[in-house]
Each structure stands twice: as C-alpha cells, then as structure tokens.
Known about the structure:
Layout: E1 26-31, H1 42-51, E2 53-58, H2 64-77, E3 82-84, H3 98-112, E4 117-119, H4 122-125, H5 143-152, E5 156-158, H6 177-182, H7 196-209, E6 215-217, H8 227-236, E7 240-243, H9 248-252, H10 255-264, E8 269-270, H11 281-289, H12 314-328
Parallel strand pairs: 1-2, 2-3, 4-5, 5-6, 6-7, 7-8
Helix pairs in contact: 2-3, 3-5
Amino acid sequence: MGFEEYNPKPTLVVPENPVNKAKFPFIDVHSHQFRMATQDLSGLIKDMDKMNMGVMVNLSGGSGEGLRAMLKNVNDNYPNRFVVFANVDFSGVGNSNWGELAAAQLELDVKSGAKGLKIYKSLGLRNKDINGNRIAIDDPRLDAIWEKCGELGIPVLIHAADPKSFWDPMDKDNERWLELKTRPRRKRSATNPAPWQQIIDEQHRMFKKHPNTKFINAHMGWYANNLDRLGELMDEIPNMSVGIGAIIAELGRQPRRAKEFFIKYQDRILFGKDSWKPQEFPTYFRVLETADEYFPYYKKYHAFWAMYGLDLPDIVLQKVYYQNAMRLIPGLDAALFK
C-alpha cells in the first residue's frame, strides 16, 4: 500500500457539528459558470438555496457579445441572484493602442452589466505580448485597465501564480507531493516561467501603484500558510482584500492563528469557494462557524491533515459571508441579506 491509498479512519471520538447550511446568507465571490448564457439557472438556484447562498459571482463572463448573452439569461430569470464579472483579452499587448482599446471595451462591458473584472492566473504565467515575451502583472502597458476599474468603481478579483510548492523540488519535503504526483502538469521548475516570488511581487507592486482601485486577492494570495506575512501585506496595501477560495485547508489546520487573523482583518476577507461542487461547501461552513476538532477535508491531495473549526463570532461571519462583498461589488440586492 502506498501513501495515496493510506487513508485511515480516525478512532478519535470528539463532538461533531456538521453544517450543511451557512448560518447567514452569503455571497460566493469566486465561482465559475462557463455555460451561463444558455444553461437553466433554476438548478443553480436550487443548490444555492439549500446552502443559504444569496448571490453567486460568476467570474467567467468573458467580454462583448458572450458577456451580454450571460447577462440576458440572468436578467430574464434571476436578476438579483447572480453577478457576472468581465475578463480581458491580453493577446494584443504591445500594440500601441492596446491599453486604450482594452479599457474602452471594459467600460462597455460594465455598461452592459458586468460588476467587476476577473484576472486569471494566465497573466504572469502564460500570457505573452505580441513579441512573445511574458507579460508581467505590473507591466505598465496594463495600467489603463487597473485605472479604468478604479474610475468605474468596480473591483478586480485576481488570481496570480499558484501555491509556491509547485515551484519547489518534488521530494519528501514538499507538502504538495501527492497533488503533483497525481497532477504532474502542475509542477514547475524554479524559474518556469519565472520564480514564484517574482510573480507574487509583481502583483503587490501593481496593487500599490493603483491605490484607488479595489483588488480582491484570490486564494489569500497563496499566503494562507503564512498569515504573519499576509498580515504585513494587508497593512502595506490597504486597497487589497482577500478571498478564501480553495485554501480552507490551510485555515483549518491553524484555527487559533486563523481566528486571530480573521478578527483583525474582518473587514477585508471575503467568502469564495472556486470550483462549483455544492457537496464541498459544508466543510467551509464547519471551519468558519464551529469549534469542532479533527474533522476531514474532502481532497486528500490538497490536504492529508484534518480540519479544526475557527468558531468565528457572528459579527465576523456576517462580514466574511456578505457585508464585505456588498461594500466592494456595486449593485447587490441588500434585501437578500436581511
């Protein structure tokens, strides 16, 4: 039997308080629904209602005609339950008027109904300019985009890089060894396409350069495993908030430190899940809401350890679940959260 198969059932007997429905209505600021233009949204609503999700933010809105098709389906059926973010096409970076044209398109998309901008991790990893060079996240040719978001009053939710372990040697010391073994395409060399720290630093420089723009750093900026450093960055960059999508396992293994962090930065943390798997949401609720000890996570390759609850105060839960998102994302229906 190898490590992949070894998954013992704990003999530990402790109180169990599973949570299938969030204590308060919540906004999921990090979802991906690629078929929203044509899909029957009633199925999503059914699952959302079961778990007390008030609003889903679809980050995969695209731009132009495709975005408008998504928004039409939403507005025709459930106009207050879904929010759609636009995306930017970086393929023309390097053309003399790229920034002006991209900013103009973004403004049109917002006029069509987009409530924010989502930046995929391809920026900094895969996107190249017209000369074939990697586009750095803080490339000044992109400034017009970030400035336009500040002007329009919309947030930018950005995913930069991936966990640092993907850049580290794949050996006995790498916590992500199982994930890299089962998903080998995620492994990078130390400089592919740039060092991890370089990409992360590019992002932070960009945030600081545009203080009037609101940024939501997805996945806690991959610093959920180093909350002291993340706290320093929060203090340095007041226009940066963080989302908790796909990093609940990091929080659940350090409940006391994570609770301190959530209380200190309670106005700048947003609920988000990332992959749309309704059966996985209860683990998030249980980590945030309960004081339970030693309960399982749902993906061994993400976390081979057990979870512990943060037992957050109600005032903090309400901010994380919906109040912070309502402050950052324009036009949400406050009646859903009374």
